[in-house]
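Work Package 4 report. The design task specified in the project plan requires that, given a folded chain encoded as structure tokens, an amino acid be chosen for each position. We show below one input record used in the internal validation round.
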């Protein structure tokens, strides 16, 4: 077990970053990591249902990415609407910051706004005179490593087929591989975690325990809590689902009751998992909290070995990339 950030680094050739989705969601490759034997398999995502056993439950995050990227009417300010914090009030990331100091005004879609607060993190709380129609003025925010503007195909493909709870600024990408047909073949339940921009924040400290984790809102519906309690094994789809399960279990002596709240749980090697018995996840950025979570679940050495093999085998990485099933 290592708590040094440098031990979660790896070299990724630029050409392996998947900047566009495949023509069909289900055509992604799936690397399977068998923790018990240390074996690595190379499969396709269409094989996923075959790895389920009787009594398994697949838990997915049904958050929906909102068109949160907005430009002011004069084109001089870019805002990322992160979270509604009051009536017509939004917590926003802004560029450039000098144009959005305390008290400064901005106009978005004909609606006037004023900077009511500058947070220690640099985010602004902007209070608008009326609701801002993001569906009209906003664009889908894409991960920075795509290094491109959003395109029409992203409107569909950067959402899961079951996305139903608007509020995220990034997709829970492990779920992007599912089609309605594949989903119908597996016993499943939904929770919600609204993925924030902090998911892309790199760990910039030498020791990972010094990293300050971002906070995200979640909901566990009653029917999902009931299904989890009855399941023999829970398969978490994505690090976001896993974080909710573990956060609820930490607060409730190992059980996952229904409810809502927010969590800043940071899972890294040494964490004792209480709920999930398997994890479906994509390939994550070097030195990221997501890679540290996966390393906690499967072991750092095993995960780094698998990532090296994924590079050799030319798997596609990140949000539109291939996936990994850890059993």
């Amino acid at each position: 077990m290592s708590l040094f950030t440098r031990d979660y680094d790896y070299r990724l050739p630029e050409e392996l970053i998947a900047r566009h989705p495949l023509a069909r969601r289900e055509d992604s490759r799936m690397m399977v990591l068998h923790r018990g034997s240390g074996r690595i398999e190379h499969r396709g995502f269409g094989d996923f249902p075959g790895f389920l056993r009787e009594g398994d439950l697949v838990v997915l995050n049904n958050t929906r990415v909102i068109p949160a990227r907005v430009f002011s009417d004069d084109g001089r300010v870019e805002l990322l609407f992160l979270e509604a914090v009051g009536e017509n009030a939004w917590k926003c990331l802004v560029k450039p910051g000098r144009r959005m100091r305390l008290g400064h005004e901005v106009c978005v879609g004909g609606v006037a706004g004023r900077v009511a607060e500058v947070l220690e993190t640099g985010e602004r709380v902007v209070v608008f005179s009326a609701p801002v129609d993001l569906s009209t003025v906003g664009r889908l925010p894409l991960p920075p490593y795509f290094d491109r503007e959003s395109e029409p195909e992203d409107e569909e493909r950067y959402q899961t087929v079951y996305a139903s709870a608007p509020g995220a600024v990034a997709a829970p990408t492990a779920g992007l591989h599912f089609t309605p047909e594949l989903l119908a073949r597996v016993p499943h339940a939904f929770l919600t975690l609204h993925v924030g921009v902090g998911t892309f924040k790199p760990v910039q400290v030498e020791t990972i325990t010094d990293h300050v984790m971002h906070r995200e809102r979640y909901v566990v519906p009653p029917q999902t809590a009931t299904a989890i309690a009855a399941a023999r094994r829970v398969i978490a789809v994505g690090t976001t689902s896993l974080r909710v399960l573990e956060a609820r279990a930490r607060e409730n002596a190992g059980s996952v009751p229904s409810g809502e709240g927010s969590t800043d749980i940071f899972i890294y090697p040494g964490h004792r998992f209480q709920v999930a018995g398997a994890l479906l996840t994509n390939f994550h950025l070097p030195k990221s909290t997501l890679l540290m979570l996966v390393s906690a679940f499967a072991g750092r050495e095993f995960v780094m070995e698998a990532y090296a093999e994924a590079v050799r085998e030319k798997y596609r990485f990140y949000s539109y990339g291939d996936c990994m099933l850890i059993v």
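Residues 238-251 form the longest helix (14 residues). Validation will be extended to a larger panel in the next phase.
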